[in-house]
Design goal:
With 364 residues, this protein is an alpha/beta fold. The chain has eleven helices and 15 strands.
């Protein structure tokens, strides 16, 4: 809706005049989706992109080199304005992945959670304020998601890390910004209880929250780069280990029948081999393919302590484990690709990206 149309509609409503049917096309344009989240202060995408000013990036310090024509960046400033600058870099061909594709291959953000709290570090130093709430918080996130979408490469992915407090709102916003058809999955990070239930009591609840949420969206689902995140077989799946001349394979079994016989009756002709050495010990194979470090089958969407080791490095109040970022970065990028984190926090994203040989941009 154009500004003059908005003013005219306000005038009609204030004067209780009849609104003609022609307004239906303006208020509910056909290109809009079947639903959207409506709230006070929501701006048009076009206005957000146009009105956001790009800011020049002034180098302060440089450490080492990351290859021809590229330097990893830790940027301090308004991340919305920084994103506009990065968009201009993308258009100029200065934001490319290892294969030369323009844009950022993987974006991970761990923004404020609308807790209305101030977070401090282990030495009582100020970490960050999380004071924005309500509709203002939703629009704060939406404005940045619009910019981040345009920064993605064609086959890129974005992960949005939040908790149950605002996840349902942001899921709808993400469906609007990225397209519901590009929603991939919601990962539950079951991190367990930390420090008792004091946080839950402070929020008026007697039930501690032991998990956080991670939404995964693709820029274009049909063209996305995403490698399977592999883990061990579950004991509930692997009922037995059998062998033939080719090696060991696992069987499922049912109601006490012989596993191999049941597979034949079910029409399963393809055996899933886990080792091509018929001489290996059965118990050792079973132990190996169900161990936490095994990589055989795609992991589910609930990641617990068997998947994520919560090792603290910086004592930053909302620090995320390196294991969490490693799984996402390895799945969504190749060596030399660009990783962007617009809410850098303790810097876990860049630390993991550096170890994995990825280029990185962090907003602080």
């Amino acid at each position: 809706m154009r500004p003059e149309q908005r003013e005219e509609l306000v005038r009609l409503l204030q004067q209780s005049e009849e609104i003609s049917p022609e307004w239906a096309h303006i208020l509910f344009p056909p290109e809009k989706r079947e639903y959207e989240l409506v709230y006070y202060g929501k701006e048009r995408e076009e206005d957000i992109i146009t009105d956001t000013l790009a800011v020049p990036l002034q180098p302060v310090r440089t450490f080492g080199k990351n290859g021809d024509g590229w330097q990893n960046m830790l940027i301090f400033g308004d991340n919305l304005q920084v994103m506009k600058t990065l968009l201009e870099m993308k258009k100029a061909g200065k934001l490319c992945n290892g294969d030369g594709a323009p844009g950022v291959r993987l974006i991970y953000i761990d923004p404020p959670f609308a807790t209305k709290q101030e977070f401090r570090g282990s030495q009582d130093q100020k970490a960050y304020q999380d004071k924005i709430a309500g509709a203002q918080f939703v629009e704060f996130i939406r404005r940045r998601l619009i910019m981040l979408r345009d920064l993605l490469s064609t086959n890129g992915n974005i992960g949005i890390h939040l908790d149950p407090r605002k996840m349902h709102y942001i899921k709808i916003i993400c469906d609007e910004v990225f397209g519901e058809e590009n929603f991939i999955n919601e990962i539950i990070w079951h991190k367990g209880r930390e420090g008792g239930s004091s946080r839950s009591h402070a929020l008026g609840s007697s039930m501690p929250t032991e998990y956080q949420n991670l939404l995964i969206y693709a820029n274009k689902r049909s063209d996305r780069l995403w490698k399977p995140i592999l883990g061990p077989y579950k004991l509930s799946t692997v009922k037995g280990i059998e062998k033939d001349s080719k090696g060991w394979y696992y069987t499922r079994g049912r109601m006490g029948r012989q596993p191999a016989q049941w597979e034949i009756e079910a029409g399963v002709s393809k055996k899933t081999y886990v080792n091509n050495n018929p001489k290996e010990n059965k118990e050792d194979i079973l132990r190996r393919i169900t161990s936490p470090d095994a990589k055989f089958v795609s992991r589910g969407d609930v990641w617990n302590s068997e998947v994520i080791t919560q090792t603290k490095v910086t004592e930053y109040p909302t620090e995320k484990p390196e294991d969490l970022l490693a799984l996402i970065i390895e799945a969504g990028t190749e060596p030399g690709d660009l990783v962007l984190d617009a809410f850098a926090g303790s810097g876990t994203t860049c630390a993991v990206a550096e170890k994995l040989g990825r280029r990185w941009i962090l907003g602080k």
